[in-house]
Amino acid sequence: MAVILAGNPDQKKKYLGRMLEEPLMCAYCVTEPVAGSEVSGIKTKAEKKGDHYVLNGQKMWITNGGVANWYFVLARTNPDPKCPAGKAFTGLIVDRDSPGVTVGRKEINMGQRASDTRGITFEDVLVPAENVLGQEGLGFRLAMGAFDKTRPPVASGAVGLAQRAFDEATKYSMERKTFGKLICEHQAVAFMSADMAIGIESARMVTQRAPWEIDQGRRNTYYASIAKCLAGDVANKTASDAVQVQSS
């Protein structure tokens, strides 16, 4: 997404064009052991030396980390701690086979087991200056812009998960009988089903609103953030409630 938003023609041809010709993958390296939601707390550094940047740092919970052919890496290029986030970070394209790139073990997730999630370490990795996205100092704004575009798809996945859990729970509740009647007729189960439906439809509406704002030519940060937060919470609660229904 970062290359789509800010890549120059040469970068798009080299890194996006090849993805149409062969099965290549990329990964988005922003999160760190000490910096998740607070992106401005990133410690990974890139120091300009000649026509290269020397990259050092560690990223965590990187989706596609073990299968990616190249990474988008957000790194601090201004060492001044008082420098505002909007000018302190730079987005870099880093090839996986660059010397100094170490891919960690696959994390064992509670869900989404097919996701290849890993930590990535960069030790004195030389990144050509031509791999800077946009220009030096624009990385934070670039990362935030990418989040605006990627949060709605994450929310969509959460809504889909919640809907499937709800469908399975509903089907079960209309087949299983206790005390002489279907469990969907018990008030406790009915209330739980109603809450699941309310949550899912609410999350679905705001998830649809987020990309619609872009279609209207408006920035969608507000709705994209709400969608990801709400849909994620709804998915967790619905999955938990569905388990309760199917254990009745």
Characterize the structure shown.
- The chain is of the alpha+beta class.
- It has 2 domains: 2-134, Butyryl-CoA Dehydrogenase, subunit A, domain 2 (Beta Barrel); 142-246, Butyryl-CoA Dehydrogenase, subunit A, domain 3, CATH 1.20.140.
- The chain is built from 6 helices and 9 strands.
- A 4-stranded antiparallel beta sheet has the order 2-3-7-6, with no helix packed on it. The chain has a 3-stranded mixed beta sheet with strand order 1-4-5.
- The longest helix is centred in the middle third of the chain and has 35 residues, at 139-173.
- The mean pLDDT is 94.
Helix content: 40-55%
Rounded mean pLDDT is 94
CATH superfamily of the largest domain: Butyryl-CoA Dehydrogenase, subunit A, domain 2
CATH class of the largest domain: Mainly Beta
H-E order: HHEEEEHEEEHEEHH
Give the end-to-end Cα distance, rounded to a whole number of Å: 44 Å
Indicate the low-confidence ranges by residue numbers: none
Cofactor: FAD
Pfam families: Acyl-CoA_dh_1, Acyl-CoA_dh_M
InterPro entries: Acyl-CoA_dehydrogenase, Acyl-CoA_Oxase/DH_mid-dom, Acyl-CoA_Oxase/DH_mid-dom_sf, AcylCo_DH-like_C, AcylCo_DH/oxidase_C, AcylCoA_DH/oxidase_NM_dom_sf
Domain Acyl-CoA dehydrogenase/oxidase C-terminal: 139-246
Brief digest:
Its cofactor is FAD. By secondary structure, the protein is of the alpha+beta class. The chain has helices spanning 2-6, 9-16, 85-88, 139-173, 187-215, 221-246, and strands at 26-29, 45-49, 52-63, 70-76, 89-95, 101-103, 117-128, 177-178, 181-182.
